């Protein structure tokens, strides 16, 4: 994978993830445009670099001496993103409510979009972006309507 291709993947993943972040920031939720763009883009970069690392060690003749498993990169990404998401979640004891779980889950999906783009699964990445926007917008709208009827 050449450097321009990796750069293009990072940009595509950042833009798609940024669309989800825009929806979050539009309704004043944490993890807005920049955060989602950075997560999606960085994940695309890390997954693409996994391929570059495997090719590099194979071409250098060290491939037989080093155990290479690019899926470990995805595992590390999920762990790191989970840490970011956990830091975003807020429990309000007085109200017995947990806030910002949706924003944390959105960050996790942004990482999935980055992985999809890096693995050249463009239809999947675009489809997931649209699906997440649909979930956040439509279900958010339903929640608002229900809240109005309750109060």
Description:
There is one protein chain. The chain has 151 residues and is mostly helical. The chain has one domain. It is built from 5 helices and 2 strands. The chain has helices spanning 3-26, 33-59, 71-88, 101-118, 122-150, and strands at residues 90-92, 97-99. A two-stranded antiparallel sheet has the order 1-2. Strand 1 and strand 2 (97-99) form a beta hairpin. Helix 1 (3-26) runs antiparallel to helix 2 (33-59) and helix 1 runs parallel beside helix 5. The longest helix is centred in the C-terminal third of the chain and has 29 residues, at 122-150. It is elongated. The mean pLDDT is 88.
Would you kindly provide a brief summary of this structure?
Helix content is 77%, strand content 4%. The protein has 5 helices and 2 strands; from the N terminus they run H-H-H-E-E-H-H. A two-stranded antiparallel sheet has the order 1-2.
